[in-house]
Amino acid sequence: MRVVLKDCVWEPQGQDLYVLTDPREVVTLADPEGRVAALFAAMQGDPATVAELRERLAADGVELGEDEVREAVSALDALGLIEEDGDGSLGDPDLDARHFSNLAFFGTYARLGRPRAAFVNAVRRAHVLVLGVGGGGSSIVQCLAGLGIGRMTLVDRDDVESRNFARQFLYHHADIGRSKVTCAEEWVRAYDPRIAVRAVDRWISGPDDLTDLVEGVDVIVGGLDGHPEAHLWTNAAAVRAKIPLVVGGMTRSQIMYYSVDPGRSPCVQCDWRDRPAADEPTAGGFVERSRARISEQNLLIAPVAAQIGSLVAYEALRYLTGFEEPQAAGAFVKLDLRAGLTPVRQPFNADPDCPVCPR
């Protein structure tokens, strides 16, 4: 195995070595004898094995045993500073060009034994079920397409209307009156023919309507509208199939998204069962009694729709690649439009008697 340094800059300062890979932080390594700086210099050239690095160090007057060099390489790997030679390629120049930025992004998270190409290939093999290609959903589709998701199943029943253009970017004026999901499918095919995409023009009226759609799916994203308990149907279908679910949306003054990791996190039904009863003489009860009387006028505008789509797609990426833990598993992440979109995490109330969660 030959290793290379990732893109970084280093500089000796007294008995320390400063290393910079991210402008927001400096890694400081104790280096009183200059051996670490010498190792960095030895790795700056062509890719090298541990034995070759030892020889380069010896040529510069730094005598280290092979085990010592191996331990140093392991320490640099733990800091995310090195990777294996060739791990930044998908093995095809056209694919490397297509995924140039995706490969660069995952370079930050790559380690020996987990190359950046493995993250990208996980995305390219993934199948995502997208529920709804309207407001947030249209942005989710575009984000997933940019990531190069291998396969998408798109579900919606609406047709394109003029009022969609304030927030839905998949459609054009000539599409008015056409099926949204058909137009979305055409957009994905035109954007990247490598992505397998299937359009399902269907009205979802319960969790059983999703049963035939979840086979082989890695993550379910988006959300259903048209019924006050539609989110519970999606939750039930996802938990039953043991597939992670990521949903985003907007209230009058908040953006929010959440995810469910079946078997590991509380689900939506857990939290729903803890809501106040409509007949309670409390503020919470008043909210429940009053929901149906609040105007359902869609307040979603383009920047907010894009924000929701990106947050949902990014959480889905966490599930698909494991580059970091899901941030919204079993919780609402809420961004207040009146407070500068500062995110606040609000965990679900776990219900040990939940009728949906596995026991």
UniProtKB/TrEMBL annotation:
Q: What is this protein called?
A: ThiF family adenylyltransferase
Residue stretches making up the THIF-type NAD/FAD binding fold domain: 119-356
Gene Ontology terms for molecular function: nucleotidyltransferase activity; thiosulfate-cyanide sulfurtransferase activity; ubiquitin-like modifier activating enzyme activity
Q: Which InterPro entries does this UniProt record tie to the protein?
A: ThiF/MoeB/HesA, ThiF_NAD_FAD-bd, Ubiquitin-activating_enz
Q: Which UniProt keywords apply?
A: Nucleotidyltransferase, Transferase
Alphabetical list of PANTHER family matching this protein: ADENYLYLTRANSFERASE AND SULFURTRANSFERASE MOCS3, UBIQUITIN-ACTIVATING ENZYME E1
* Pfam families cross-referenced by the UniProt entry: ThiF
